[in-house]
Amino acid sequence: MRPAQQSLLDRSRRLDNPAQPLPLPFSAVSTASSGDLEDLIYFLLAMRDEIEDGRIEDDLLLAQAHDLVRREHGVVFIVRGDLGVKAGIEASLGVMFQRWPLSRNYYLRSVWNVVVPVARRTGHAKSLLKSATDFADALGRPLYLNAYQPPRHVCLEDTSAEPSPKLRLCSRHMALAGRIFAHIPEVADQKAS
After folding, report:
1. Which are the contacts of 64, defined by CB distance < 8 A and separation ≥ 6?
2. Statement: residue 40 has pLDDT above 70
3. pLDDT digits over 147-179, tens only?
4. N-term to C-term CA, the chain
5. What is the CATH number of the domain that holds 89?
6. 111/109 Cα distance (integer angstroms)
7. Total count of domains within the chain
8. Is 2 helix (H, G, I), strand (E, B) or coil?
9. Domain of 100, in residue numbers
């Protein structure tokens, strides 16, 4: 982004702290359609090691991609460009509808959220997240995105600082394997209260 394109707010932040990096621009995100399926499959197979830490089975990934592109039980967001793998897709976020086992209320959950290594630090990830949260807002449903990591044991330094007894118990006996991030849209009922 050229300095002439920066907002006044961005310019003032740079003057206060010149070491602060410029914010990444938003990328053009589109919703994948059946015409994108072949390119999407090629992209996902190329990025398979980064989806759920590589613990996937190709046939299930391809079936899920096929369903989401046809908008059965979810949607796929993509960013195209010249930096991508052969197909030209540089980033993708697959989102599916799910429900808790004992609830009829649906929520949205990420299935994959990947950007090719050469296209990182381009704003693609931020743009995909923005598209997914806008989608969740439009539907009035929560969105959960997983951030997988290899499991590691993490002890809470000060267990009294953690308000949840369940988290305190789990941290003592189980390995941490990432985080789940949630976007909860404001619905009309919540705005009124």
Report:
1. 94, 96, 111
2. yes
3. 766 666 666 666 566 567 777 667 777 677 667
4. 41
5. 3.40.630.30
6. 6
7. 1
8. coil
9. 21-192
